[in-house]
Amino acid sequence: MHTHTRSLLAALVLTLFCSTLALAAPAAAASASVADDKPVGVVQAVRPPLLLAYGDVDIWDENGRVIQKPAPGEKMSTADAAAETPDPLEGWNRMWFGFNDKLYFWALKPVAQGYSFVIPERPRLWVNNFIHNLGFPVRFVSLMLQGKPDAAAVETSRFIGNTAFGLGGFADVTADLKPYKPIPSTEQDLGLTFGYWGAGNGFYLVWPFIGPSSGRDTVGYAGDYFLDPASYIHPWYWSIAAKGYEKVNEVSLRIGDYETLKDASVDPYEAVRDAYLRMRFKKMND
Amino acid sequence: MKKISVLAGLLLLTACLCSPAFAGEPLDRLKTGVDKVVDILSDPALKGAAKKVERQQKMRAVSDSFFDWRELSRRAAAEHWAKFTPKQQDDFVVAFSELLQKTYIRKLDKYNNEKVSYLKEQIEGNQAFVNTLVAMKDKSIPINYVMIKRDQWLVYDVFVEGVSLVKNYRTQFAKILVKESPEALIQRIKDKIKALDEGKNVDDAVGKDG
Fold first, then answer.
1. A279–B163 C-beta distance less than 8 A
2. Does chain B have fewer CB atoms within 10 Å around its N or its C terminus?
3. How many CA atoms lie within 13 Å of B69's alpha carbon, on the beta-carbon side?
4. ipTM of the complex
5. Closest alpha carbon within chain B to A171
6. Residue B91: helix, strand or coil by DSSP?
7. How many helices (H) and strands (E) in chain B?
């Protein structure tokens, strides 16, 4: 096993360990207080659903599908339920959210701005295509695991087409080609695959450098790591450099999005959390 | 006679074939609003930093006739809305819409001829849902609108990539309102607006690139 793989695993285990510790403490406290009041088993979730408790029932979900109500009194769409993913590590998460925020404004954004000042937008879009094309294994494996062979086949032909006729993936020559019949979205990864299988988010988790995630998506991310060709670049620091460059290129095309969300919100941490959980939920079902 | 019936039949057929092209009222209304915004943003007479104030005033006028700020605010405050006094409700609507306009009009300033396509419209009672797709430089982003019929159809919620504007704020507001009074929340929004006005925002540093 390479050194960097080992250190990655170590970091993963450490954070999961810390999270479990922090997770266990309030849970233990809660169960203790519950045990005082009533015998276990009679206790129900007393807290009413926070959202939509005020009488306005949504007609449509985020995609415009009429919301089916499985049980009377159940007023939340499934996306709302996903957005209600618990956040037991809020203090810990807020700390890393602050860290990532500073990382963005002090390092990532200035670098991306300098980079986009030197390199015009079009070449940066080519690089973006190239990186996206290289991410093919993640999408292919995820689609196969989700039992969507037709979408996986389309994704494969896009990969072959772009690699062979799009100068190794720098041009997205297959972008305008429509599949013969409609296919589900091919933008999938392992975290979404676990979700597609029925796994819940577990809990919300913010990682340094990586950003918002969840228990489920963290496991998926670790799996995606092994499917990403950039992870296999040999001296480990070149692998890190390649991933860093990917990030800078991506950010250079998105400067301003995070700023708007942050400016417009009264609690940026909550705004990002809600947006992350809802976006992931939509991607999973697309 | 035969000729006339054939002609009538053809006319009817044409009418049937064309009818999908006539969109319903909500979609038309949305389209007019979006077109107005695009017109302002691409008007050469309003281009440039010098015309920024004038441009933003026009945008505000359009968005005021286009959004139901009260409905939007009420839904964002959700079950806490009843705790607001009528005066607080009014103040909240004013402050919240101000914050939204300030930040999102500035964001729209970076509009660069992205094309909007209108996909689908559904009407149910006095509410409507419109699906649109905006083609960005490297991908298309679904933006959906929920509208309500007042004198005219007005937008009260926007979904961008599955994220509801109203619900995104509902989570934030709920968190504050369980601990603090409505007055404190209004003050927080006002503080945020003040900070943005004083240039403590992060966006102005972005410049024209990106």
1. yes
2. N
3. 19
4. 0.82
5. B138
6. helix
7. 7, 5
